[in-house]
Amino acid sequence: MKTDKTNIGELFDSISPSYDFLNHFFSLNIDKLWRKKVVKQLSGKKEKVLDIATGTADLAIEIIKQDKAKHIIGIDLSQGMLKKGQEKLDKLKLSDKITLIQEDCHSLSFEDNSFDAAVVGFGVRNFRDLDLGLREINRVLKPKGEFIVLEFSKPRYKIISFFYNIYLNHILPLLGRLFSKHLYAYSYLPNTINEFVYGKDFVERLNKAGFEKATYKEVSFGIATIYKAVKR
Ligand SMILES: C[S@@+](CC[C@H](N)C(=O)[O-])C[C@H]1O[C@@H](n2cnc3c(N)ncnc32)[C@H](O)[C@@H]1O
To answer: What is the mean pLDDT of each successive set of 10 residues along the chain, which is 232 residues long?
Structure first.
């Protein structure tokens, strides 16, 4: 049975207080290195960047740290995640450079051809309708606008895959339940990773949604993958 994604906003609202801590804890801080790599993919400094499913704004903050954008709009379904993100922006005095808005990426309020680049970190896996979400991102990008995606994938090597699957499917849900006090959220994570398209299959979906020149690079033995494409 496919994972139910109808109440995604509420799910992330409920884990937002512990999201940052658990994210870094479960990944042993490797998620920070992955985000750094993602931002390095942006060619030059952009005028306006859209960070989709921005959550607590970590990717948007990294873009500013690497001086890759003048202004970023971060959108997310979850008010709880955005609230945590806004607290970080206030602390870092970045509110003039990053604007957070509650929006659903399946129906964005922005005009066609508005952004020079768009990024998504661990967000596409959660879309209710992947093809619709990708088409909508494509719509708001300028022609030749860059699109970078960071998403979990599945390790290629059998031995790594074996241990990773034990961690992902058994240890992580158990620890997640303990720390976040949420019964379902950290079973949702492995379920969506196991179901999600990755590698060549994801590139096909990008092409179908109006992107071209799509390439991808596995990171950390394929636990995650970074995709890069441009709007056709
Ligand atoms: C795993 S978090 C990733 C957050 C952040 N990008 C990061 O790198 O840590 C996934 C986020 O996707 C958001 N999300 C899921 N579906 C969405 C949609 N249709 N539109 C906007 N945000 C969505 C969730 O609310 C959640 O904050």
So the answer is: 78 90 87 97 97 98 98 98 98 98 98 98 96 98 98 93 92 83 77 92 98 97 97 97
Q: Is residue 130 part of a domain?
A: yes
**Ligand 1 atom at shortest distance from the alpha carbon of 9:** 25
Q: Per residue in 150-183, pLDDT tens?
A: 999 999 899 999 999 999 999 988 888 887 777 6
User: Is 12 contained in some domain?
Assistant: yes
Q: 159 C-alpha to center of ligand 1: Å?
A: 30
Structural domain total, the chain: 1
Give the type of residue at 165.
Answer: N
Nearest to 143, CA basis, from 210, 76, 207: 210
CB 147 within 8 A of CB 230: yes
Q: Which residue has the tokens 């607590």?
A: 56
- What's the per-residue H, E or C state across 135-166? HHHHHHEEEEEEEEEEEECCCCCHHHHHHHHH
Domain range holding 124? 8-154+197-231
Q: What end-to-end distance do the CA atoms of the chain give, in Å?
A: 35
Three-state SS for 72? strand
77 lines ligand 1 (CB under 6 A): yes
| pTM exceeds 0.90, yes or no | yes
Is the residue at 221 inside a domain?
Answer: yes
CATH code of the domain containing 36 = 3.40.50.150
In a domain, 143, yes or no: yes
